[in-house]
Amino acid sequence: MVAGSVLKARLEEAKTPLLVVFTHEDGDSAEFRRIDKALKGQLSELKKNKEFEGKAMTLSLLRTPSSPFKRVLLVGLGKKKELSLEMLRRGAGVAVKAAREQAPEIAIPVSHDRGGLKRLDAVAQAIAEGVILGGYRFLKYKTQDVESLKQLKSFTLLVEEKAQAKPAQRGLEKGAILSDSVNYARDLVNTPAADMSPAALEEESRRLAKRHNLKLTVFDAAELKRRGMGAILSVGKGSAVLPRMIILEYRRPGAKKHLVLCGKGVCYDSGGYNIKTTMLELMKDDMGGAAALLGTLDALATMKTKAHVTVILGAVENLISGSAYKTGDVVKASNGKTIEVLNTDAEGRVVLADCLSHASAIKDADMILDIATLTGAAKVALGTVGGVLTPNDRLAKALIEAGEETGDRAWRLPLWEEHKEDIKSDIADMKNIGYPMTAGASAGAVFLQEFVAKPELWAHIDIGGAVYDDRERPYLPKGATGWGVRLLTRFVELQ
Ligand code: BES
Ligand code: ZN
Ligand code: ZN
Prior knowledge:
Blueprint: E1 3-8, E2 19-23, H1 30-38, H2 42-48, E3 59-63, E4 71-76, H3 85-99, E5 105-109, H4 120-134, E6 154-159, H5 162-190, H6 198-212, E7 215-219, H7 221-226, H8 230-236, E8 244-251, E9 258-269, H9 288-303, E10 308-318, E11 330-332, E12 338-340, H10 348-360, E13 367-372, H11 376-382, E14 386-389, H12 393-406, E15 410-412, H13 418-421, E16 430-431, H14 440-449, E17 458-462, E18 468-469, E19 479-480, H15 485-493
Parallel strand pairs: 1-6, 2-4, 5-6, 9-10, 9-13, 12-16, 13-17, 14-15
Antiparallel strand pairs: 3-4, 7-8, 8-10, 11-12, 14-17, 18-19
The structure holds ligand BES and zinc ion (2 copies).
């Protein structure tokens, strides 16, 4: 974990091995002008020669050995007028990746010149997030040459006025908690399925519950059977590690609403007898919904947010064996509805059928959300943006706004009556697939809706594309994104 701190110091006197200076393409930032002056015009010289123009995500490194700061890393943030918290996160993310090659410690001014961004705490939070999320690496399985990978050890947020120290500290702390929780979720998703089985996910949940004093209940296979949860049981039949439902409850006095969050925890999705032909090596990420919820609980509990949240994880492996469920099977969920399994690879919705039925039986629940790597169709439609599907316009808006604010971008996909047509079954109450190659994310959602008692108080979030990115992004290395932790934490805070 990278440690952050706030320091009050005059910019020109900042003692640091590397000073990050954000600036713009349509005019210099205040810190650019001041450091330029201290360096007798060295920075403006670069701009004049067009060696550095301040364009978004461009960098330039200068050695300044005779100054208190030994290096200056210029970071372009694009147009000043368009500066946003997300741009700051991204700028801090690219800065940290370049800076850690140079120095184990860096300093970043927060209080100088942030265009229209007036709230210093939000600015400090965004920069801290960019640094901690951007600095993330998954090193659990590296044994060789780990030492040669240069890691950032600590960062300092610089303020110049005494009154700025408190809001900067507040922002830093919040940003650090959220980012550590996102990185925790990333670790869970990046961990190979061999080490993240349903049993391991249970163990991880127990550790989290212990750390934060959460109430934990686990339904093992026998209990699932007793409760008539034939859907999750069927999906898990083919694995030597039996399925389980993991329920965690976080509650702090002062909470107004009880939110129930369900997560798809398919620890490995081979597709079953409808075996996948592509991206099998990626299918350890099919528990990304569950991971996002564990990360969210971690953040809420660390921040002591006033909230009442119950998390329900359907932990299971979708494998092939003599005991696996088969294409054509009819299974029954605990709300009594029957499902014709016409594709064993559409297993997430079958698992969630029991999770949502259980959530719907919680008497005082005010709202149910589910988050799941449900469809490849969501990835095709939205890329790494999360898909929101709900009959409730206000809820859709609130989720998308929480995403916009936090950097977990989301967008709405339709969920309409006519989608119900597509999941009609000849022999059961419904089938687990829609019409081929047609509105796949909507078909998934309309299926899930059959298992919630009050659809108007429910939203489904499809992270089929958002969970993982094999392209490097400004504050994200290749791999698990931790998508959802920031959005959901913010959403819960606002309830
Ligand atoms: N976990 C997958 C969805 C997925 C695929 C997410 C690729 C991310 C990347 C899910 O269980 C699945 O296989 N869904 C099928 C549903 C189809 C058979 C109706 C899909 O999307 O192809
Ligand atoms: Zn599948
Ligand atoms: Zn799946």
